From TrEMBL:
It comes from the Bacteria. It is found in: Cell membrane. The chain crosses the membrane at residues 12-39, 59-84, 96-122, 128-154, 175-207, 227-248. Keywords: Cell membrane, Membrane, Transmembrane, Transmembrane helix, Transport. This is Binding-protein-dependent transport systems inner membrane component. It comes from Paracoccus denitrificans (strain Pd 1222).
């Protein structure tokens, strides 16, 4: 009886959580301009409007530029942080790692306002670059966690064997360690890309006059005639996010299997 109650609770919870997402494709293919039941006829008109919208294409280009740049920067910094935290002991290690993870627990609006005040006080003009810096800051903790798992899974005897065979620290890292943690690096890139692409608050404060995809969607919600096109765009974004997270989880599990470590849970 208790098991049935728990399953019913889990079902209701998942339905409440994901029902709005499931409604996106339903209304994206509905010919009606009002988001309400009953539905009218099937159409792909809103997807055509989406691809033909010049402002949307500009916002998408900006978001892709920001997401690619932030994911690469966050992953590179995450590699250094994960390597240092898993391989070496040094003074202040705990506080330093806590500082890196701080954006995970701080409200994004606090981070955004703080960055805005600092950048304006330094005379930095708000642009795509400032959004990249902000997104790198919030993506780095996720990248560090993923890469720390990958580095912790390594067999240190392989690194020591490379030293015994005459490799330097740099060449051993490049030829032995990086290939072994490459699934974790790919997973970190994809996860950071997804987080940056979907992020709104930091982009809203730091983008200046350059629109990103989330800020563009927010600006269009004031116009009822644009809602069906936004539904179509939301459908594409949900599919893209699920695909990227699935690929990231695949590479994470592949890395675990490659190193022989235990699976301690993942993103999906």
């Amino acid at each position: 009886m208790k098991g049935r109650g728990l399953r019913a609770y889990a079902l209701v919870y998942l339905l409440f959580l994901y029902a709005p997402i499931l409604l996106l494709p339903i209304f994206a293919f509905n010919s009606g301009t009002i988001i309400a039941f009953p539905l009218k006829s099937f159409t792909t008109e809103w997807f055509g409007q989406m691809w033909g919208n010049a402002s949307l294409r500009r916002a998408l280009t900006n978001s892709l530029t920001i997401a690619v740049s932030a994911s690469i920067l966050a992953t590179c910094l995450g590699i250094f942080a994960a390597r240092a935290s898993t391989r070496f002991e040094f003074p202040g290690k705990g506080p330093i790692m806590g500082l890196i993870m701080l954006p995970l627990v701080l409200p994004e609006i606090i981070v955004s306002i703080s960055l805005l005040v600092v950048l304006l006080s330094l005379g930095v003009k708000l642009s795509i670059l400032t959004v990249i810096l902000g997104h790198t800051l919030i993506c780095m903790p996720y990248a560090t966690v993923i890469l720390s798992t990958a580095f912790n899974s390594l067999d240190r005897s392989l690194e020591e064997a490379a030293y015994d065979l005459g490799e330097t620290r740099i060449s051993a890292f490049r030829l032995v360690i990086l290939p072994l943690v490459m699934p974790g690096i790919i997973s970190s890139l994809l996860m950071s890309f997804t987080i940056s692409l979907d992020e709104f608050i930091i982009a809203f404060f730091l983008a200046g006059n350059e629109p990103t995809l989330p800020t563009y969607i927010f600006s269009q919600l004031r116009f009822p005639k644009q809602i069906p096109m936004i539904m179509a765009l939301g459908t594409v974004l949900v599919i893209m996010s699920i695909l990227l997270l699935t690929i990231a989880e695949y590479f994470r599990r592949r890395g675990i299997a490659k190193t022989g470590a235990k699976n301690t849970g993942g993103f999906l």
